[in-house]
Design the sequence.
């Protein structure tokens, strides 16, 4: 990706929607435009053309969709939160980094869509091979909120195909949030 210096970026004007939103907000706020910067008044609202009602009966409302990816009876994975169904000693060992991972997946340098596919393959293969503890290294990221992969990993772990594989997730060291150890469920 090529970065363009700010001075050379083309400026885009405000869209009509942007202008209307800004005017609606400033109408309620106690602000005044800077001298010479007042926006033109909004155009009169055009009345949409009337459409003849359809002769068909309205469709029945769709059934509500289930939550994305979470199975019934399986709680959501939160990195660092003790999951139900794991004893305190085992959780403490995982959280403190004393449980050695049998495999490690390093996601440094990957894009989000590549990393997601790699995580899926890695976890399915690790569980099929009988691994109980694995590590995924996302990296800490360069921004205050962390990197994209670090933020996305918990969402990926809660998707329908991965959630049943993972029992719990923890950062093995408080000073290194860029690595996550996962305790996998036994093959069933």
Sequence:
């Amino acid at each position: 990706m090529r970065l363009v210096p700010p001075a050379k970026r083309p400026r885009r004007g405000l869209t009509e929607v942007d202008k209307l939103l800004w005017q609606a907000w400033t109408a309620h706020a106690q602000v005044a435009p800077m001298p010479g910067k007042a926006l033109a008044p909004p155009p009169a609202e055009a009345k949409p053309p009337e459409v003849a009602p359809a002769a068909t009966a309205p469709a029945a409302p769709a059934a509500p969709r289930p939550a994305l990816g979470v199975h019934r009876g399986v709680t959501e994975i939160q990195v660092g939160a003790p999951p139900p169904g794991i004893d305190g000693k085992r959780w403490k060992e995982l959280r403190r980094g004393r449980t050695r991972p049998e495999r490690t997946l390093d996601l440094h340098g990957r894009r989000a869509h590549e990393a997601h596919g790699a995580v899926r393959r890695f976890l399915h293969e690790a569980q099929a091979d009988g691994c109980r503890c694995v590590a995924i290294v996302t990296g800490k990221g360069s921004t205050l909120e962390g990197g994209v992969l670090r933020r996305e990993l918990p969402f990926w772990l809660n998707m329908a195909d991965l959630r049943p594989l993972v029992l719990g997730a923890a950062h093995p060291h408080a000073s290194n949030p860029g690595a996550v150890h996962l305790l996998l469920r036994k093959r069933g």
Notes: The first strand starts at residue 103 and ends at 106. The radius of gyration is 25 Å. The domain at 88-184 is CATH 3.30.1370.110 (Ribosomal Protein S8; Chain: A, domain 1).
